[in-house]
């Protein structure tokens, strides 16, 4: 199965500009950011396609029963609509597809990774007026409804199954070997969700060296998010060198070395040595 082909350089630059603008907005729009990621991956996703994806989220929200009630009723209503009526869910095979991390494709296929299926749940529920938020459990993203003292969790990857406390603990233990901690149940901010989506795309690409182009644009989008990890600069430098941009990649690594020198001089020296080796590849 071939993954999507990217847009033209001009279109990609415009998408990055819009992504940066939205990421720095006072209230970043999760659906807009995820759709811009999709457009960066898939050159066939034009403005009409972006609008169609938003319209589909609106349409689904219009089918949610009016004000279902308490958090458990909201979770059940979304499960009945998205998981049962429309068949949104995931499987092990979805982890092998780039499309599983692209919101527009998940809306078409009704299949995706836990976090992208959760984005569908979040955006549909939010439009319908639900008290909803993402919950970034280690290794498995789910959706929460209601305040902490009444919190109800649902797993969109499993068709929206409503989770008991024991179910959530099993998910965390399976991913980390450690038990569920209350701190893991706090709502995830939109930009946290976006960075996790981009991390998944980078992980997909890292297992496929021939798709370093995907890894590069995912890193570059992550760098546009405020307060991103400085190490992304180093990763971008490595990818540029891998793709033959030796000087630009070396410069990026040298800038990263300068940033970390004050806290880890040894790391800075190792990165500078790597940058020097990259420059030598020009000879």
Can you offer a commentary on this structure?
The structure is a single chain. The protein is an alpha+beta fold and 283 residues long. It is globular and about 65 Å long. The chain is built from twelve helices and five strands. The two termini are 39 Å apart. 58% of the residues lie in helices and 7% in strands. Helix 1 runs antiparallel to helix 2. Strands 4-3-2-1-5 form a five-stranded antiparallel sheet, with helices on both faces. Belongs to the UPF0162 family. InterPro entries: SirB1_N (IPR032698).
Spatial order of strands in the largest sheet? 4-3-2-1-5
**Which value, in Å, is the CA radius of gyration?**
20 Å
The backbone outline, from C-alpha atoms, is: globular
What percent of residues adopt helix (DSSP H or I)?
Answer: 55-70%
Structural class assignment: alpha+beta
According to DSSP, the number of beta strands is 5
Instruction: Specify the number of helices.
Output: 12
